[in-house]
Amino acid sequence: QVQLVESGGGLVQAGGSLRLSCAASGRTFRRNAMGWFRQAPGKEREFVAAHSWSGSTYYVDSVKGRFTISRDNAKNTVYLQMNSLKPDDTAVYYCAASRDYSYSSSDYSAYNYWGQGTQVTVSS
């Protein structure tokens, strides 16, 4: 059974940093895309960042230059380093992994496995 478990969320002041981690178990994703999505209250889930098997990365415009996605295939773990956080970044952040795609995608439907989510709250 595949499981994705996120950690690292919390409360931080604007301008601060957080590092999210997502540990996968049940299968390896070294040849598959992994990514992060987020959902703010009253809004739809939106793409944040993705990491392909080859190392290429893809970000939504609103986080470019502030967030960095990385992965450690030996640990089957993907990370999201979030710097210069803003109140608009407040959301539940979800880790996602694709069963079928190797390259980064911002499409929700490209991902088959999801974590339970971790809350990130940025105060002004």
Count of beta strands? 11
**Poorly predicted runs:** none
Our Rg estimate from Cα atoms comes to: 13 Å
Strand content: over 45%
Question: Kindly state the mean pLDDT as a whole number?
Answer: 96
Helix share bin: under 10%
Distance between the termini: 40 Å
Query: SSE order, as H and E?
Result: EEEEEEEEEEE
Category from helices, strands and their pairing: mainly beta
Oligomer: single chain
Specify the overall morphology. Answer: globular
Tally of alpha and pi helices: 0
Observed structural traits:
124 residues, seven-stranded mixed beta sheet, four-stranded antiparallel beta sheet, 11 strands, 0% helix, 48% strand, globular
Question: Would you spell out the secondary-structure blueprint of this structure?
Answer:
Layout: E1 3-7, E2 10-13, E3 18-25, E4 34-39, E5 46-51, E6 57-59, E7 67-72, E8 77-82, E9 91-97, E10 113-114, E11 118-123
Parallel strand pairs: 2-11
Antiparallel strand pairs: 1-3, 3-8, 4-5, 4-9, 5-6, 7-8, 9-10, 9-11
